[in-house]
Write a sequence for this structure.
């Protein structure tokens, strides 16, 4: 069964929804107001399926804050959302996309990410709030090369 997710750029009006989704899933939310321009709300039809974002730094991207509504997890919405976010990054000129995760490395490996030495990530990615302050040093760093 294939599912479809459509993205809409997040706005400041979405902050309560975004923060609720992130907090209820134990994901960092502290810098979200300053990152709103890099976030998207994912829809399955007219219902919110989840959210995610891509911070873009020249040809590098940082995939972050990916979360799917609990009631529809395990049905392909996470993969569909990530594919849309990766395609967005590709269209913006990103050739390598990174992420940090403490719980979902298996999921991200299934969609094409590989484990990557956090200390080898580009400096611009290492200097993001997510890398420097929000995610613990025990978080798994992952990378996908996209063309």
């Amino acid at each position: 069964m294939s599912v479809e997710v459509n993205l809409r750029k997040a706005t400041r009006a979405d902050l309560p929804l975004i923060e609720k989704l992130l907090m209820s899933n134990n994901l960092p939310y502290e810098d979200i107001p300053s990152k709103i321009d890099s976030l998207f709300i994912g829809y399955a039809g007219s219902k919110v399926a989840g959210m995610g974002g891509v911070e873009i730094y020249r040809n590098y991207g940082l995939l972050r804050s990916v979360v799917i509504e609990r009631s529809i997890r395990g049905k392909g919405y996470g993969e569909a959302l990530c594919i849309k976010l990766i395609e967005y990054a590709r269209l913006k000129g990103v050739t390598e996309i990174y992420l940090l995760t403490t719980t979902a490395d298996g999921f991200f490996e299934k969609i094409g990410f590989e484990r990557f030495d956090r200390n080898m990530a580009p400096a611009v990615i290492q200097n993001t709030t997510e890398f420097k302050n929000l995610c613990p040093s025990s978080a798994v760093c992952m990378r996908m090369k996209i063309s």
The helical segments are 15-24, 32-35, 77-91, 105-110, 123-126, 129-134. The chain has six helices and seven strands.
